[in-house]
């Protein structure tokens, strides 16, 4: 039974690795860091696959692991000072992302991590609000209000960008 769970978990991770990578990349804007986040998350998911009680929640469980890896990444980055980055020559991260819609990317980046996550899971990963609520372990009404509040912020930010042009 344990081998069956392990095989299913591994298969799901392989099938969806691009989604996980895209999610991580949208936060860290660096290909290497996003790859590390997904790799660490996949390792933890596979290693702990025996602790998953209900296999139908595997997708939600893996997304939570990836999100925790993203949060860990930012917690670790906060411990680095700007001076340390400048000394190492990494003041500008290598392999930064190039988006076709800079205004949208800037507006998304202006949102809090939690708000940005709801928008990205809904519109970039095409998840249902119920799935997002499960992943974030929040009430559906909380997710809905966060999504609509975030969309309102995005509209304001994007309209400000258009006024500048």
Order of helices and strands: HHHHHHHHH
**Portion in strands:** under 5%
**Apparent shape:** globular
- Number of continuous helical runs: 9
**pLDDT average, as an integer?**
79
Major beta sheet summary: none
- What is the number of E strands? 0
Radius of gyration of CA atoms, rounded to a whole number = 18 Å
Structural class: mainly alpha
Low-confidence region ranges: 80-99
Tell me the helix content.
Answer: over 70%
Structure description:
This protein is mainly α. The chain has 9 helices and no strands.
Write the layout of secondary structure elements.
Layout: H1 2-15, H2 17-28, H3 31-47, H4 58-78, H5 82-88, H6 102-110, H7 113-124, H8 129-136, H9 140-164
Helix pairs in contact: 1-3, 2-3, 2-4, 3-4, 4-8, 6-9, 7-9, 8-9
Question: TL;DR?
Answer:
With 165 residues, the chain is mainly α. The chain has 9 helices and no strands. The longest helix has 25 residues, at 140-164.
Keywords:
about 160 residues; mainly alpha; 9 helices
């Amino acid at each position: 039974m344990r081998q069956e769970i392990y095989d299913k978990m591994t298969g799901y991770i392989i099938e969806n690795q691009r989604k996980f990578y895209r999610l991580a990349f949208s936060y860290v804007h660096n290909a290497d860091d996003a790859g590390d986040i997904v790799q660490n998350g996949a390792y933890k998911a596979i290693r702990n696959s025996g602790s998953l009680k209900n296999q139908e929640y595997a997708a939600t469980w893996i997304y939570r692991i990836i999100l925790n890896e993203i949060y860990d990444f930012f917690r670790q980055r906060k411990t680095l000072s700007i001076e340390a980055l400048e000394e190492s020559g990494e003041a500008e991260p290598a392999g930064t992302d190039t988006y076709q819609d800079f205004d949208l990317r800037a507006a998304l980046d202006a949102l809090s991590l939690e708000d940005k996550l709801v928008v990205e899971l809904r519109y970039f990963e095409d998840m249902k609000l119920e799935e997002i609520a499960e992943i974030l372990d929040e009430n559906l009404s909380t997710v809905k209000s966060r999504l609509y509040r975030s969309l309102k912020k995005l509209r304001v930010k994007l309209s400000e960008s258009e006024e500048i042009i």
